Structures are given as structure tokens and as C-alpha cells.
Amino acid sequence: MPLLLLTTALMTTRRVVFIGFSLDDVYLTEVLRRVSDLLWEWDTTTHFAIMPLDPSKGTEQIQRAADLKRQMGIETVFYTVDGGSHAALETLISRIANEVHTRTSVAI
Asked: Cα 87–88–93 angle (5° rounding)?
């Protein structure tokens, strides 16, 4: 029960970015559903998921991403898997880090 409360508190007060997590875990998905039922404003992005885009499953993954956004406000950011390599993930994370650094440096 304490983990449920902690996870719920985190997801209701902070923007969460899921990296390397399929969002298939039934317990976490249930927490996300409960949080979104309570607080989510429809058609807004609350959390993010960074996931690989496998060319052989592209249509299926894009549909799943649309469902995550529609049902729980999770925007999926894809990176391409090339020949089984996830090197594009590192590039994407670096770009995000640089953008955050640039924005916070300007704001100060």
C-alpha cells in the first residue's frame, strides 16, 4: 500500500518520463488509470514515454501510443531501432538534456 500511495503522489504532482519501460505492467497501469481518472484533463499530455520504434511493428506501436495518449495522457516519443541497436536512444536523451539545459540557462 505505501508504494501505491507514493506512486500516486508522484504521478499526480510531477511530470514523469518513462524510459525503457513498456508500460505493460498491470499494477503500474492501474495506478496510471486511477490517476488519469481523477485528475487528467482530456487531450492534454501529462507524462511521457520514450520507446523504441521497431520497423516490423510500427503500425501496432503507433496505435498503442495513440491509446496511451487517449486513455492516460502519456505522450510517446519514439526513437528508431536500427539493426537491433538502440544508439538513437542515447542521441535522443542527449538532445533532450541539451534543450532542458538551454531553457533553464536562459530562464535564470
From this structure: 105
Single-letter residue type at 39: L
| Per-position pLDDT tens, the chain of length 108 | 677 788 788 888 888 899 988 888 888 888 888 887 777 666 666 789 999 998 888 799 999 999 998 888 889 999 998 888 899 999 999 999 999 888 877 655
Contacts of 27 by beta carbon, 8 Å cutoff, 6+ apart: none
User: What H or E segment, with its residue span, contains residue 105?
Assistant: helix 87-107
pTM: 0.78
The conformational region for residue 73 under phi > 0 = left, psi -120 to 50 = alpha, else beta, is left
How far is Cα 92 from Cα 108, in angstroms, rounded to an integer? 25
> Do 10 and 39 meet the contact criterion of CB atoms below 8 Å apart?
no
Torsional sign, CA 26, 57, 44, 9: positive
